């Protein structure tokens, strides 16, 4: 029962707050995030960008490295890593095309 309730909550949150995207041509709703991280290597500061799209596990089935992801209004990407988190969500780590 709890699992069903959480699944309903996830569906609602992704429908209302999610970003529209396509993964391998399939429309999905996910949470897109493109952080800028400042890493310090010695005295050299670097800018590393690791954008990612969090989707429901059902939308990540069959997605692997090099899959094409298009996030509406954000651009085109390829998947560099697929990271399920065990909570029903999967993070697709992306690289801009």
TrEMBL record:
Pfam families referenced in this protein's UniProt entry, alphabetically: Phage_attach
Protein name: Uncharacterized protein
Protein species of origin: Vogesella oryzagri
Lineage: Bacteria, Pseudomonadati, Pseudomonadota, Betaproteobacteria, Neisseriales
């Amino acid at each position: 029962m709890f699992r069903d309730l959480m699944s309903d909550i996830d569906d609602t949150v992704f429908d209302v707050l999610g970003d529209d995207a396509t993964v391998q041509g399939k429309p999905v709703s996910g949470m897109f995030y493109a952080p800028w991280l400042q890493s310090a290597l010695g005295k050299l500061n670097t800018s590393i960008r690791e954008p990612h799209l969090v989707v429901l596990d059902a939308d990540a089935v069959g997605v692997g490295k090099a899959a094409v992801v298009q996030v509406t209004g954000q651009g085109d990407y390829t998947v560099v890593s697929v990271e399920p988190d065990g909570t029903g969500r999967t993070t697709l780590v992306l690289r801009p095309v």
